[in-house]
Amino acid sequence: MVQNNVKRMLRKVLYVVLAILFLIICIGGCIFIWNSLSSNGKAVVDINKQKIAVITKSTTSQFWKSVFSGANAASTEYNLGITFEGPDNEEDYEKQNELINKAVKNGVDAIVFSAVDYNASADAINYAVSQGLKVVVIDSDVNSDRVSCRISTDNYLAGKKAGEKVLESTERAIYVGIVNFDKNSANGQEREQGFRDAVEEDSRVTIIDSRNVLSTSEDAKNETKWMVRQHPQINVIVTFNEWTSLGVGYAIEEENLADETMVIAFDSNIVSVEMLEKGVVDALLVQNPYAMGYLGVECAYKLINNQSPKQTRIDTSTQLITRDNMFDEECQRILFPFD
User: Fold this and answer.
1) Distance from C-alpha of 296 to C-alpha of 314, rounded to nearest angstrom
2) Distance (Å, rounded) from C-alpha 74 to C-alpha 330?
3) H-run or E-run covering 179
4) Phi (first) and psi of residue 252, to 5 degrees
């Protein structure tokens, strides 16, 4: 009997101890939540962190996801608060301008920016600088002399590389179709100009058609199909970003033209790499978006801490990848980056 009473007493003590521990945890959790919220219920931003807004052409493609990975790595290293935003499509410069003005209103210290339209966001960027923000451009330029640093592929040189690859063709006559994205986007136009300059002096080359399309795989596919049906003599197609590369590849597959058409494309994701391996695409010019994101945020950090960048223009380079070298270790790291 005595033993049973002792056991009951011990159980009661144990329940009381557990209840006290539970109460302590609940109170601690409430205090944590209260301290994490402002009086109106919104999360409190760490005001001790400098803030950078990364505003890109969009956020959905593998290219921009890699940019964000690099930007995020730099923000962690330098203890920064960053936001990463862009429009739903790569033609919406009005949304970009809204995001620039929002960044100014929110009191960020710097903007890392990739322009949909070279001219259309110039006023918004100039306004941001007039309000004390530092601006770093990555990937695609904006028409402003108030940008502190520009970090991107040398787009003209990348276009020349595409042209030089085309000239390796053994065809006696090279009939070229060009599928480019928004004509107001600086990087696409620079790539096309580099390509044209590389091939213009070779008498074998005739540029049959050049089209600017929406930066979507569907629009690029439809325009490419129209082009090859209207100009069946085309035996080379060159295209200049991730979405248009996919669209051209889909069109060539669906029209059964892979064996007779050389395709030189830009950027990479799992689908375009598969197209390269199958022979639908003959070469990919692959950029380094991770470096653009990382260096863009790093440069912004230095600027807002009164450290002048060593260079005001930084080339993040491109690599020409074909079926011959795609399994080389260096190319594998480029095609399949790990964060």
Assistant:
1) 10
2) 23
3) strand 174-180
4) -65, -40
Longest Cα separation, the chain: 110
For residues 248-272, give the mean pLDDT: 97
Alpha carbon distance 283, 281 (integer Å): 6
- Tell me which amino acid residue 38 is: S
- pLDDT of 57 above 60: yes
Q: Which two tokens stand for residue 72?
A: 């995020």
Angle, helices 242-254/217-230, rounded to nearest 10 degrees: 50
Lowest-pLDDT range, 6-15, 28-37, 59-68, 84-93?
A: 28-37
pLDDT bin (cut points 50, 70, 90) of residue 25 is very low
Distance from C-alpha of 241 to C-alpha of 216, rounded to nearest angstrom:
10
List the structure tokens of 188. 């696409």
Distance CA 325, CA 301 (A): 37
Query: Each residue of 182-217: b (16+ CB within 10 Å) or e?
Result: bebbbbbbbbbebbbebbeeeeebebbbbbbbbbbb
CA distances to 165, 208, 244, 303 from 211, in Å = 20, 10, 11, 39
In the chain, pLDDT over 90 holds for what percent of residues? Answer: 83
Of residues 232, 239, 193, 189, the one with CA closest to residue 216: 239
Query: Are 237 and 248 a contacting pair, CB within 8 Å?
Result: yes
Asked if pLDDT for residue 48 goes beyond 50, the answer is yes
